[in-house]
Fold:
Amino acid sequence: MLSPGERRSFILRKIFSLTGVVPIGCFLVMHLWSYSSALNGRHAFAGTAANASQSAYRWVIEALLVWLPLLFHAVYGIIISFEARPNTRAYPYARNWAYVLQRVSGIVVLLFIGYHAYRVPIQVALGNLDHDDVFAELCATLSSTVTGGIPAVAVGYLAGIAATCYHFANGLTNFCFSWGITTSRQASRRMAGVAGLVAIGLFALGASSVVYFATGSRVVLGWPASSSTPPAIGCGDLEQKKPKATAELFDSERSMSAELDASHAAEGRSR
Structure:
């Protein structure tokens, strides 16, 4: 029979494993997918952000379903990391290394999320950054370079996304074993393979967005263009433009969008 301390530890580890998949893992997939809308230009990206922020209770919902579970997962993950005593020299097995990499990647993920949250959602929440300016801000930030022309922030984002995808995939494998979904070694290996493919797909999605923001190049095709949206304004259109020229570009985009909306509204009335 478990002691009260062991029972508490057992429950906390179950919750820790669960929060890594639901809701944090689900939010990761949705977040990377929404950011990939940038591949179709500023209007598509701003539209996705606007749709996500329509709810009056958005910040309350995100706090309860994302940030609080993430805070618990991060704090308890740090506690587990300090309690762990892995010995990869004496037991250099794949799962032992995976355990170590899970702890290391968790720290990288925590730093990455903290930086990204401060640069984008927190600035939007504080009113320092408008939803319509997030696209241009990401273009400027991720395309900035250091000595030697290296886009350091973009490279950091790629490393952060890679660590996040690995952490999620390995956590998903552990979750399935911990919750009794995979009960055999063969089933666990199959689940690890599936999770690995999911991680590769998510990284490709996230990396495509980062590369686009940093270089203006599309590694993969963007979403199918819609006749109800104006021509896409990409990062390349914003580079080396003076504020006045950029403002004129945005005004032209808004004007074309309004004309298209009016045209579609007129067509709807005529039917």
